[in-house]
Sequence to fold (447 residues):
Amino acid sequence: MSEIVDLGLMNLTSPMILCFALGVAAALAKSDLHVPETLGRGMSIYLMLAIGFKGGHAVITGDAGVGEVVPALLVAILLSFLMPPIAYAALRAFARIDRIDAGAIAAHYGSVSVVTFVTAVQFLEIQGIPFEGYLVAMMALMETPAIISGLILARAGGASGAGARAASDGGAGGVGGRLGLSGELLREIFLNASVVLLIGGFLIGSASGARGMDAVAPLVRDLFNGVLCLFLLDMGLLAARRLSGAGALDWRLVVFALVMPPVGALFGLGAAAALGLSLGGAALLAVLAASASYIAVPAAMRLALPEANPGIYVTLSLVITFPFNVLVGIPLYFACARLVGFA
Amino acid sequence: MALHPKKKVEIVVERSRAGAVIETLERLGARGYTVVPSVAGKGQHRGATGGDWAVLDVYQHVMIIAVVDPAVAERITESCAALLENYSGIVTLSDVEVVRAQYF
Fold:
């Protein structure tokens, strides 16, 4: 128990988390501190490309074989596809919200938050704990399946007028038409900025090998922690300025946003055990399964499920689940991974 | 100098719907349009938007401006109710005069 407390304190006093706290405090104190939109977007592009690059580099210079990587990637896709039904069932039974909102929220919780993952990576690196480089590729693949899964949950069966309307908008027939999968939506799902940057960075990092890392290390490695600090400052501002939105939510939804992450982490640890991951890898997979998307999935949901209320799904994933994971979740999942015997 | 009467259609809409709005404008006969890529404000549907929401497209709005013939403007405003269902947005129409009529 004292170990968990120690880990928690170590996490809370890391510069990244302190910057996040600074953002929260500044917003609550109604400071006019403001990170310009272009800088925020620039930093997120940098973080995604750099983490992709570092992952690709780690895979190509590491000793993981194809027999290890391919099953891991398949498990990632499966995990992302199967988490939404669990979230959906909980939302329908416990929070008693309608099918459309439940499907939209479930998609967020099956998908992942890149920033949460990156923060967890720094948590491990500060302690000198290694992890499998292909976790980055797993993350990239976990963005999308949950969106499809969530749409199926929201649309299938009870697809009434709304579903039919979306289908005719999309102009596609069959299952795709029923889910409202227009060309614009498919692009958003499979070619959104984070998927392109993560997979692109991963491929560049693995194709250019050790020499490639030597060439760009000052950018992708040395600057990384500092940029992450700034980005988390922005996220702190963003989350705290939307806190009032959380106050307007039904308490059952808030409970869901706090309970679903640890439940997801357990599934992540189970998958990590099946794959035989290291302690660092298991903790990161738990973080991935626990985290909820708040950039890529909301954008896809506005296209695919405009009837769903973004005031609910963005608030849950950004204002409640993201701070919970970053402040408490990461050390907690890491401690659990060690407790159950990952080494 | 001769001025030519036209209609100006101004549509403020969340960014995720901007593509569909522009596609509709062009399909209904607008020969050009202007986009103000980021506008901030407050409304009934979404509350305050813009500004702080930097990385979230969901809370970012754009303004799309098209100057068109009155007949085209009518077609556009008629199609807007369906186009903006479930999205936050403002549609206004005003009389304007243009200098170079051949471009509209």
Summary: Residues 2-339 of chain A form a domain with the Na+/H+ antiporter like fold fold (CATH 1.20.1530.20).
